[in-house]
Amino acid sequence: MAKVAVYKMDGTQNGEIELNDSVFGAEVNVPVMHEAVVAHLAALRQGTQSARTRAEVSGGGKKPYRQKGTGRARQGSIRSPQWVGGGVVFAPKPRDYAVKMNKKARRVAIRSALTSCVQENKLTVLDELTLSEIKTKDMVKVLDQFKLNKALVLLTGDNKNVILSARNIPDVKTLPAEQVNVYDVLKYENLVATKDAIEKIEEVFA
């Protein structure tokens, strides 16, 4: 099992933690990670766009001008797509963009992403992460101890003060450990997790 250092919030080392190889030492599968990212981004799409086809645009019941003798192309309705105010050809309609991904493949993808973090030394483990009050400056101070920016912070339990203190920091995101996903792990340059969060991840994805 791989070992990583555990730090206090002040930046001093406080022992080590062994990582479960089935989660943090798996074989990195890039194609499956790509599939997971595509599925994640597709699920974020609202799919609420909508436009009217020629059948749904009101008006246009009367032929705009006679069939022959005008020298112009024949027209049957002013609501045809070529007319201003007419319907849209192949108009977009509300739809679900979600892409199905097998549960086993999702687990392989998250294990691959977490393993790549360990291999690239992007994982920082804290023995705990708590703040006595909601203060962005305090959260920035903790991250600065480790020279971290663009960080994904994984937490467990009720960490309202930490979550609210971090939400105004650019390029910093907090997530419950059980909601960790491939897209966020790959998007952020650093992964910060408490010991409890590591244990929760191993419990869920081992």
Q: Please, could you describe this protein's structure?
A:
- The model has no long low-confidence stretch (mean pLDDT 91).
- The protein has 206 residues and is α/β, with parallel strands linked by helices.
- It is 34% helix and 15% strand.
- Strand 1 and strand 2 form a beta hairpin.
- The chain contains 7 helices and 6 strands, in the order ββαααβαβαβαβα.
- The protein is elongated and about 90 Å long.
- The chain has a 6-stranded mixed β-sheet.
- The chain has helices at residues 21-24, 30-44, 103-119, 136-145, 160-166, 182-187, 195-205; strands at 3-7, 13-18, 123-126, 151-155, 172-176, 190-194.
- Helix 2 (30-44) packs across helix 3 and helix 4 (136-145) crosses helix 5.
Strand order of the largest sheet: 2-1-3-6-4-5
Number of strands: 6
Biggest sheet features: 6 strands, mixed
Helical content (DSSP H or I, runs of 4+)? 25-40%
Mind telling me the C-alpha Rg?
A: 27 Å
Distance from N terminus to C terminus (CA atoms, Å) equals 13 Å
**Structural category:** alpha/beta
Strand content: 5-15%
Shape: elongated
What's the helix count?
A: 7
> Averaging pLDDT over every residue, what do you get?
91
Low confidence ranges: none
Q: What oligomeric state do the depicted chains represent?
A: single chain
Comma- or semicolon-separated keywords:
206 residues, alpha/beta, 6-stranded mixed sheet, 34% helix
Helix and strand topology:
Blueprint: E1 3-7, E2 13-18, H1 21-24, H2 30-44, H3 103-119, E3 123-126, H4 136-145, E4 151-155, H5 160-166, E5 172-176, H6 182-187, E6 190-194, H7 195-205
Parallel strand pairs: 1-3, 3-6, 4-5, 4-6
Antiparallel strand pairs: 1-2
Helix pairs in contact: 2-3, 4-5
